Amino acid sequence: MQLLSTTNAGEQRNLVERIRQGDESAETELVRGFSQRIFVMSVVRTRDREVARELMQDTLMAVIGALRKGQLQEPDKLAAFVHGTARNLINNHLRREGQKPPLEPVSEDLAHAATVEQLEAAERARLVHQALDGLAEEDRKILWMTLAEGQKPGEIAAALGLTPEVVRTRKLRASRKVSDLIRKKMSRT
After folding, report:
1. Helix/strand/coil percentages in the chain, nearest 5
2. Residue 176: exposure state from Cβ atoms within 10 A (0-12, 13-18, ≥19)
3. Residue 184 pLDDT
4. Is residue 1 predicted with pLDDT exceeding 50?
5. Of 94, 114, 108, 22, whose CA–CA distance to 64 is shortest?
6. How far apart are CA 66 and CA 54, in angstroms?
7. Using the 8-state DSSP alphabet, how is residue 76 labeled?
8. Could you read off the pLDDT of 37-91 as tens digits, one per residue?
9. Do 183 and 124 touch, CB atoms closer than 8 A?
10. Which of 76, 90, 114, 185 is most exposed, with minimal Cβ within 10 Å?
């Protein structure tokens, strides 16, 4: 069987019509006539022979499916249709690959260390919450206003109706209590 000529419009029209009518030998002829061209185009664009093979197969399947459904409006432009389908599939592949972050291998030590660090951080956070829950409400407010909001003892004293000296003393006691509780719990694990 001779290869399909992409320049002969009559041959292309005939092939399209045979495929639309369900002629499997016409589909085989199309595959033989365009496989190598699509493969070369795919290899040049992707620089990956395996990906090129997949893209070639995807292109041929898409073209045959479209021809079976009679979706090619100008059958004498079959070669341009095949080329355009291949180009679109290759571009879609390259776009998808371009959006993926580059993969870098992670060593076992690094993966293990990240997991251990995350677990320890979560445990510390749980212990801090537990220790804070054990404080009197006003002591929790004093620590919050000091550490989270960055307020000075004078500002906190005015807001809570205390003296700045009382605020400093309660802050010191509360932070020691939290620190001691966390230290005790962490030493047990």
Report:
1. 80, 0, 20
2. exposed
3. 81
4. no
5. 22
6. 18
7. G
8. 999 999 999 888 999 999 999 999 999 999 999 999 999 999 999 999 999 999 9
9. no
10. 114
CA 138 from centre of chain: 46
Residues 155, 157: Cα–Cα separation, whole Å: 5
CA–CA distances in Å: residue 175 to residues 20, 49, 178, 179, 185: 81, 64, 5, 6, 15
Specify the fold of 9-99. Rna Polymerase Sigma Factor; Chain: A (1.10.1740)
Amino acid at 155: E
Work out the end-to-end distance of the chain between its first and last CA atoms, rounded to an integer number of angstroms. Answer: 78
Report d(CA 38, CA 31) in Å as an integer. Answer: 10
Place of tokens 């000075």: 152
The residue ranges of every structural domain in the chain are 9-99, 108-188
3-state secondary structure of 8: coil
- The whole-angstrom separation of Cα 189 and Cα 186 is 5
Phi/psi-derived region of residue 58, left when phi > 0, alpha when psi is between -120 and 50, beta in every other case: alpha
Which amino acid type is present at position 170?
A: R
b/e sequence 67-101, b meaning 16+ C-beta within 10 Å: beeeebeebebbbebbbebbeebbeebeeeeeeee
* Overall size of the chain counted in residues: 189
Tens of pLDDT, residues 119-149:
777 777 888 888 888 889 999 899 889 888 8
